[in-house]
User: What shape does this take?
Amino acid sequence: MARIYHDIIQLFAMVGEALAGATDSLLAGNREAARRLADRDEAIDALYRDVENLTQHELASGAHGAEDLAYFIGILRMLPEMERSGDLAEHVARRAVRGLGMELSPRARGLIERMGEVAVAMWRATADAYADRTPRAAEEVDERDDELDELHVTLTAEIASGSMALPVAIEAALVARFYERFGDHAVNLARRIDTMLSLPG
Assistant: This one.
């Protein structure tokens, strides 16, 4: 139980750091840092598989009560959301490796910077709720997700305005979608965590 708990905290930290670093690298044009971040997705995937295997082993052992079983099932439902979030951070880093950030319009750069800030804040609120074992994340994360959705709409309008070359606009639209999807995963995780922590026992 303790190992699973701490490994999940580590996964939260690795994914959150990956997205924050990918955003910084994209906007700063730091291709080498972005390349290192993209390559770190393998470490996230490896830890994901370790936690999944350990959780499945504990679930199948028959040595746990109903409360623990509910916890293990909750973890197995959380893990795919975490793994996909790591993939999204890698996708942003890959665009930074290609130098996309330097080709964006100033307005698009500002919007992506804010999207990164909001997405990371959502992720940290979710991680803190899990780490502190306090069911409080869903409402805060939902509110921040509304802002992220509004930023996505605004960035889409900027992309459609013709302020960037077509290949850049296409890549910018993908990046906007990556942040929006990352926020959706944070919302789903926050709700799952609140549900897990609100169970009697």
